[in-house]
Specification:
The chain is α/β, with parallel strands linked by helices. It folds into three domains: 164 residues, Rossmann fold (3-Layer(aba) Sandwich); 157 residues, Dihydrodipicolinate Reductase, domain 2; 82 residues, 2-Layer Sandwich (Alpha-Beta Plaits), CATH 3.30.70. Helices cover 36% and strands 25% of the residues. The strands form two sheets. Strands 7, 8, 9, 10, 11, 12, 13, 14, 15, 16, 17 and 18 form a twelve-stranded mixed β-sheet that branches. It has a six-stranded parallel β-sheet with strand order 3-2-1-4-5-6, sandwiched between helices.
């Protein structure tokens, strides 16, 4: 059904909602010229209608009652930007049931409760846009879903949380401790008052869930993703990583091989000459390797009002164009692409190289005892650094291993940590980038 204009209703007028509204208002004539029809921001619903967002809105546009948007037959696209699970889930499902198309930036909701939402979109022949849910201004959803459709994607890994990357960048450049940088990030607005999702890797796992579903056809698997944050990282580890020629980054990693997909989020040592190691501050970067296109790196701002608003706008425009041309076909539903042949690889079975940092008693036979335990689990030492004594008979011993199985490493470290010659629990990090 063709219409003169496509009407949009935004629910949630926070940072991203404000950025989205600003773009819609300021570039309305640009959109109309390029598309051949107007996109009209009819209403914005938010509980706070008093706060000045720096935008001049026509009278009656800003309202408190989101139900007015959900039940308005003239509104074609509902944009959910309130975040969280509830009532966002109920709002989206109701919008879909009412025959409206939906755009959201809510990665947590889609990763944890996405099946019900994608099913509702399919059942009601509606489109669901979620470009803004992953990596802000980087159009990575469109890249995976459309640009690389002719590829079997083998690997994805990336920095997809700006807060964690900012913290690790500052620790690397200035040699300061984690707690100090976190406090600074909170003061600058890069980290929330409760930064748990960012620093513990949860936010990255939400985003990896969506990318993996699109890229590999695995069901939404957030609860099965191995997730580890950056709170254990110290300036000492960063310095040792540099001496070995590496940097430490919080990576989201997805790999497909032999009908298995491994999904994991954790701090990772990567070679200093890897392009992604030079991604600093609040920026995001995602590496994708396809069998036809080869390797590609996508870089940009991962958060913020206008960068994320830009991603929201891309979905609005795509859906508006499909409505006008009668081509609505649920492009954004990932629930239909499940590959039943694939299974998720257990974390204990993944193979990678490792960095180990131990505090051991300085006496003869220590190295042979530790290397003997590692060897009994088929773990070989590739290189080693031993630092001078710092405190009572204790020295720092740092090793890089050859590739080993996670289960073997965990078992070996349990045995090593029980030794009387080991004075502190061993710090270990996984390494990506080969053994070169």
């Amino acid at each position: 059904m063709k219409k003169d204009a496509i009407n949009v209703g935004i629910i949630g007028f926070g940072t991203v909602g404000t950025g989205t509204a600003e773009i819609l208002i300021k570039k309305r004539k640009v959109f109309e010229k390029k598309l051949g029809f107007p996109i009209v921001l009819k209403n914005i619903a938010d509980l706070d209608v008093k706060r000045d967002r720096g935008l001049k809105l026509a009278k009656g546009v800003l309202i408190k009652d989101s139900e007015k948007i959900l039940n308005d037959p003239d509104i074609d696209i509902v944009v959910e930007l309130i975040g969280g699970i509830h009532p966002a889930k109920e709002i989206i499902v109701k919008a879909l049931k009412n025959g409206k198309h939906v755009v959201t930036a809510n990665k947590a909701l889609l990763a944890e409760s996405g099946k019900a939402i994608f099913d509702a979109a399919a059942k009601n022949s509606a489109e669901l846009g979620f470009e803004a849910s992953v990596a802000g201004s980087i159009p990575i959803i469109k890249v995976i879903r459309e640009s690389l459709i002719g590829n079997k994607i083998n690997n994805i890994y990336g920095i997809i949380n700006g807060t964690a990357n900012y913290i690790l960048t500052k620790m690397t450049e200035e040699g300061v401790k984690f707690d100090t940088v976190l406090k600074e990030a909170q003061e600058l607005g890069y980290a929330e008052a409760d930064p748990t999702f960012d620093i513990e890797g949860v936010d990255s796992a939400h985003k990896l869930t969506l990318m993996a579903s699109l890229a590999f056809g695995v069901p939404l698997s957030f609860k099965k993703i191995y997730t580890e944050g950056i709170t254990r990282i110290t300036p000492m580890d960063i310095q040792f990583a540099s001496e070995f020629g590496y940097k430490i980054k919080l990576l989201a990693i997805a790999k497909q091989a032999d009908n298995e997909v491994e999904l994991r989020v954790h701090p990772t040592m990567i070679p200093q000459d890897d392009l992604i190691s030079s991604v600093n501050g609040v920026f995001n970067a995602i590496y994708i390797e396809g069998d036809s296109a080869g390797a590609g790196l996508y870089y940009g701002r991962g958060a913020g009002d206008l960068p994320t608003g830009s991603a929201v706008i891309s979905d609005i425009v795509d859906i508006a164009r499909n409505i006008k041309t009668g081509a609505v076909d649920r492009l954004f539903s990932i629930g239909m692409s499940v590959n039943p042949k694939l299974s998720l690889k257990k974390m204990e079975d993944i193979r990678t190289c490792y960095y180990l940092r131990m505090s051991v008693i300085d006496k003869p036979g220590v190295l042979s005892k530790i290397s003997g335990i590692l060897g009994s689990y088929n773990i070989g030492i590739r290189s080693m650094i031993q630092k001078d004594r710092k405190k009572e008979k204790a020295v720092t011993l740092v090793m890089m291993t050859h590739e080993a199985r996670e289960k073997d490493m965990v078992m070996a470290l349990k045995e090593i940590n029980r030794l009387s010659i080991v004075s502190e629990k061993t710090m270990y990090l996984r390494v990506e980038g080969g053994e070169g």
